[in-house]
Amino acid sequence: MQFEAESNGVKYEISVHETRSHWKVSLRPEDADWKHYNISKQDYQQIDQTISFIFNNSSYLVDVIGEDTKYTVYTRGTHRSIDIFNEENLLHESLKGKGGFGGGGSLTSGMPGKIVKVMVEDGQEVKQNQPLLIMEAMKMENEIRAAQDGTIEKVHVQSGDNVEAGAQLISFKKP
Amino acid sequence: MFKKILVANRGEIAIRVMRACRELGILSVAVFSEADRNSLHVLLADEAYPIGPAPSNESYLNIEKIIEVCKLSGAEAIHPGYGFLSESPAFAQALEDAGITFIGPTVENIKSMGDKLASRELMKAAGVPTVPGSKGSIESLEEAQQAAESIGYPVMIKASAGGGGKGIRVAHNPEELPEAFRACKSEGLNFFKDDRVFIERFIQNPKHIEVQVFGDTHGNVVHLFERECSVQRRHQKLIEESPSISVPDEVRQKMGEVAVTAARSIKYVGAGTIEFIFDNLTKEFFFMEMNTRLQVEHPVTELVTGIDLVQEQIFVAAGRKLSFSQDQIQQKGHAIELRICAEDPADFTPSPGKIRRCRLPAGPFVRIDGYAYPGYEVPIYYDPMIIKLIVWGHDRQECIRRAQRALAEFMVTGIKSNIVLHKNILVHPEFLDGSYTTQFIDREIAGKQQSQLFMFVEEDVFLIAAAITAFTDSKLRSTSEFKLASRWGKAGRMKAMRT
To answer: What whole-number distance in Å separates Cα of residue B204 and Cα of residue B202?
Structure first.
């Protein structure tokens, strides 16, 4: 199975093939050669709800959480977020067309929190970097600013609202 | 002795207090907000009572409600932990009025140390060193020159109304003073519409060093040596250790004596901490403030002295004399505490959410005070610190190695954690040689490339694990779609197999 991935700012082509006893994983970072790994299932197995991965004789305990195309890999006290697209995802992306993050679109909440203050209103024109609202999460106030110039179509929240991760906060007019 | 104690707090400190209670045969009462029904302190307590909605001011800060629950439960005393109501004179007073024992200092103690400026004046009068500075505001350059000369260079000129880094200038010598003075005055006027300035000694290599003190109701006051807490991010401590490698023995002795003098001057009762700013060049120390409560980092003192500070708090609140005299307290070996927080290790933004896997380190001389468990959802309403890892060693080097070993066993997944940040700090030359100051994180760690923070893992491990999981997920999706479509066929096949 073929994938495309992006990790730490680098794009990869990935191929995964499963046999009875092995995982055959090949990685090709942008502008570099393929690397082929033939990983015995002895060396990569689920133990006590965690993956034990012996890689080049290094023992890793790994946990992977995947949602749609976003995968987060946890190991050795650290984590890495990786975007992975299979053929099906890639097809969807190409149908959507370019400019998904462009002028139109909306601001969503990255984490659950509470809206402390809204500084803009429907129909208002905003400049890049202009503060839009202040959100509080875990005792810390975070000012959220405009990523680029644009016009606000609608503000979906008001101060005092509690919002979930992924909630739509502000939508922008299409240019 | 008390038969039942209510713990007016949550998280790891509530559990810490309950552990002390249980060891003393005292029943513990937990209180919890709507966001904390599943929190570990509720699960470990003997009794538990809901006290209101998730936001702290409607639950953990609700004095009336907590007193009502205390009476209902029949608890005779309340331990406030740290944060929340622990330094509220109103709370301590309300408990006194209700006939409930407050496990902490007196109302007067809290009041006298509550105001930062007033407490510094109070300490100055008691003979405790404070940062040398001008009395009141400075009007003219001549006056500034005189003040700077008597304080000693380098000096810091501060706008009275200043804040957020604005309105502060440093003059390293008399030549730099006129311009610094002028700039500071005009910045004060421009930003704060107030051109009054004052002058203070500029501490070039500041360290945060504090001394644990303990008093009882019989007039005894002792100190339990120092803790160094200079590793801080956003002015919050991240790593604490005892003893401090930077403090020479004779200065340590002096700091302890000064701390006892300070506590004695206000007839302090219970556990408290005198915070000093320490100049790592001149080895001078100056009073900053006093915390009239148990500190987050109290375990490092417990590990080097062998004294259970929470049990001692309970004894003192019950009216007993301190169970140790000054000469019985010794600092043995070295202890380090690492605060594990649910936050992004690179930019320190909080990362609440559901913990999936949680494996805690164990083994010799490793202590865990925490409240995380697999499946627990870290709420957005409270502090992001979820676990404290505390280790002990015969000396600092052994202690650091042990901390590194313990970190290697640590696994928290599902949320971001700063475990890797600690790993990076523990191998940093400035941490290893002890020269780090309170600016260490800002200068050396914050905003550093993620790749530098991730040097403990081979890059391809991330990719291979993600790819194999994505592969398995895709297979699972396609087969489940297939299965859904052919469930009737499957049922038929099952039937055929049975007959």
So the answer is: 6
Write out the residue range of the structural domain in which residue A17 sits: 2-95
d(CA B106, CA B95): 11
| Domain limit, last residue, from A95, A116, A135 | A95
pLDDT in tens, A63-76: 999 988 999 999 99
Residue B455 has pLDDT above 80, yes or no: no
Same domain, A49 and A111: no
The nearest CA of chain A is from the CA of B384 a distance in Å of 6
Given this model, what pLDDT does residue A102 score? 34
Sort out which chain B residues have CB atoms less than 8 A from A53's CB and list them. 461, 464-465
**Within this chain, do residues A69 and A148 fall inside the same structural domain, yes or no?**
no
* Å between B251 CA and nearest CA of chain A: 37
Looking at residue B122, its amino acid is L
Q: Say yes or no: A70 and A25 in one domain.
A: yes
SS3 content of chain B, % helix, strand, coil (to 5): 40, 25, 35
The whole-model pTM stands at: 0.82
d(CA B434, CA B27): 43
Q: Which helix (H) or strand (E) holds B157?
A: strand B155-163
The reply to whether A51 and A134 lie within a common domain is no
Q: A23 and A58 in one domain?
A: yes
Task: Give me the residue from A44, A76, A86 closest to B468, CB to CB.
Answer: A44
For residue B180, count other CB atoms closer than 10 A to its CB.
21
Same domain as A9, residue A76: yes
- Please report the number of interchain residue pairs, chain A to chain B, with beta-carbon separation below 8 angstroms: 160
Does residue A91 share a domain with residue A67?
yes
Does any domain span residue A9?
Answer: yes
Does residue B79 surpass a pLDDT of 90? yes
Predicted complex ipTM: 0.77
Same domain, A80 and A144: no
The pLDDT value recorded for residue B499 is 47
The number of distinct structural domains making up chain A is: 2
What order of strands is seen across the sheet that includes strand B4-7?
A: B47-52, B27-33, B4-7, B77-79, B101-102
A80 touches chain B (CB under 8 A): yes
